Structures are given as C-alpha cells and as structure tokens.
Amino acid sequence: MEFAVAQEVRRKTNRCESDFACLACQPQCLCPVVSAIDGGVLFIEPKCEQKMFCTYRMQFGNGTMCTCPTRKELYHRYRV
After folding, report:
1. Which of 9, 39, 52, 54 has its CA 20 to 30 A from that of 19?
2. Closest CA to 32 of 43, 18, 21, 17
3. In degrees rounded to 5, what are phi and psi of residue 65?
4. How far apart are CA 2 and CA 59, in angstroms?
5. CA distance 27 to 32
6. What is the pLDDT of residues 2-50, one digit of tens each?
7. Which long-range contacts (CB under 8 A, 24 or more apart) does 71-75 make?
8. CB neighbours of 19 closer than 8 A, spacing ≥ 6?
9. String of b and e for 1-24 (b: at least 16 CB within 10 Å)?
C-alpha cells in the first residue's frame, strides 16, 4: 500500500534520513501509535528492526514520542 501526504507536510519533514520510506511500506512496518495527545504529539512503540536512530523519535519518561510531521499525517489520515 502506498500512502500519500500533502506536499506541505513533506516540506515540513526536512530531517527525514530514510527518504520517506514510510510512504511506500505496509501499515505493519510503521511504529504503532500508543496514544495521541491533542492531535499533535504521538507516543509510539518502536519496532525492533526500527530502533535505529531517527531524528524525530525522542524518549519521554518511559515512553517514546514521534514528532515526525509525515508520521502524524499518516496517523490522522489513515489511522495507522
């Protein structure tokens, strides 16, 4: 399945080091969203094979936050 996001969202995702690989993957390859706070901050469960460095992933207490604009758009548009 290929996902689509607005060009403005892609422009905001200016620190992506994986060349937007998430847009061409299956939903199960994305880090699952555990919760979303006010539609802005996503708390995720990093997948084992994806625990490599990501400029948009941050530890917050015992959780992991994703601040990637593209990942947020995928969550809100496709509920993945």
Report:
1. 39
2. 43
3. -100, 145
4. 28
5. 9
6. 899 999 999 999 999 888 988 888 777 888 999 998 877 899 998 755 5
7. 71/22, 71/30, 71/31, 71/42, 71/44, 72/40, 72/42, 73/5, 73/6, 73/9, 74/3, 74/5, 74/22, 74/23, 74/30, 75/33, 75/36, 75/42
8. none
9. eebebeeebbeebeebeeeeebee
